[in-house]
Amino acid sequence: MGSHRKTAKMKKQLDYYWRLFATGLSFSVFGAGGFLLWVVVFPILNMIPDSPAKKRLRAQKCVHYSFYLFIGLMHRIGIMTYEINGLEKLNRPGQLILANHPTLIDIVFLLSRIPYASCIVKKKLCHNPCMKGPIVNAGYISNEDPEKMINTCSDYLKSGGIMIIFPESTRTIPNADYKFQRGAAAIALQSGAVVTPVTIHCTPSTLTKSEKWYQIPERRFHLSMTVGEDMVLDDFQAIMPRSIAVRRFNRYLQDYFSQQRRRNEYCPGK
């Protein structure tokens, strides 16, 4: 009996150290891949004559394939498992996808399933050598100037583009109430886009705002993504002035995602 417990403990330790190594390997691959996209892949793709819009779409598709392979790598080497419910509701022209943001890889996971999409990025990432290539070539939008950001995102959606936005603007603080910024709500109402909520849940919790990459959980984590029904904006569009409409829709978003989180906590996944 003692021998079995000792063997089980040793297997658990080996699994932990393997996942620690594999996590470091994955992030190294991600960084190297982003740098190669910047200095090798995108310069070659940009040599193909085409309009700026088509070049941007080509770059977005390239990022999509890269992230698809990255998620596949993390899955195959035993770091994570995942499930997706309602993927068929995504990938529609002029669609604004609003999601909660529990982990570092949420945007990677979403873009790995959406071939053509833009998103909002922090200003400092535009100077990161591992991220600069995808950001510049795929036309991701900086949050440096909030008013310009809202107008640019709205115009992109009106032109038929797909946007992914985290209303929190940063990763969720564990065990804290959601505090959404109003930018996502303002973009939704200004653009009149199809607004689709996506709820992401991670068990055990990992890669949060308060954790380093090497602080891995006791077992591989499970990431679930559930696509909700489109949100009806008519009642909010009718509210004047627009600032009040934005405030009320933002509160509606907070309530929706808070309810989804409570449901996940009450009925946890794997």
Write a compact overview of the structure shown.
49% of the residues lie in helices and 14% in strands.
Describe this structure in words.
The chain crosses the membrane at residues 20-45. It comes from Methyloglobulus morosus KoM1. One of its GO terms (molecular function) is 1-acylglycerol-3-phosphate O-acyltransferase activity. The protein is an alpha/beta fold. The chain has a single domain (2-266), classed as Glycerol-3-phosphate (1)-acyltransferase (3-Layer(aba) Sandwich), CATH 3.40.1130. 49% of the residues lie in helices and 14% in strands. It has 8 helices and 7 strands, in the order ααββαβαβαβαββαα. It has a 7-stranded mixed β-sheet with strand order 1-7-6-2-5-3-4, with helices on both faces. α1 crosses α4, α5 (146-158) packs parallel to α6 (183-191) and α6 crosses α8. The two termini are 29 Å apart. The mean pLDDT is 92.
In round numbers, the mean pLDDT is 92
Residue windows where pLDDT falls under 50 for at least 5 positions = none
Strand order in the largest sheet = 1-7-6-2-5-3-4
What would you call the shape? globular
- Going by CATH, the architecture would be 3-Layer(aba) Sandwich
Rounded to the nearest angstrom, the radius of gyration is: 20 Å
Find the count of extended strands (DSSP E, 2+ residues). 7
Distance between the termini: 29 Å
**CATH topology call:** Glycerol-3-phosphate (1)-acyltransferase
Q: What's the level 1 CATH class?
A: Alpha Beta
How many strands, which pairing sense, and closed or not: the largest β-sheet? 7 strands, mixed
Strand % is: 5-15%
* Helix-strand makeup class: alpha/beta
Q: Estimate nothing, just give the exact number of structural domains.
A: 1
The percent range for helix content is 40-55%
Number of DSSP helical runs: 8
Series of H and E elements: HHEEHEHEHEHEEHH
Pathway: Lipid metabolism
GO molecular function: 1-acylglycerol-3-phosphate O-acyltransferase activity
InterPro entries: Plipid/glycerol_acylTrfase
Transmembrane segments: 20-45
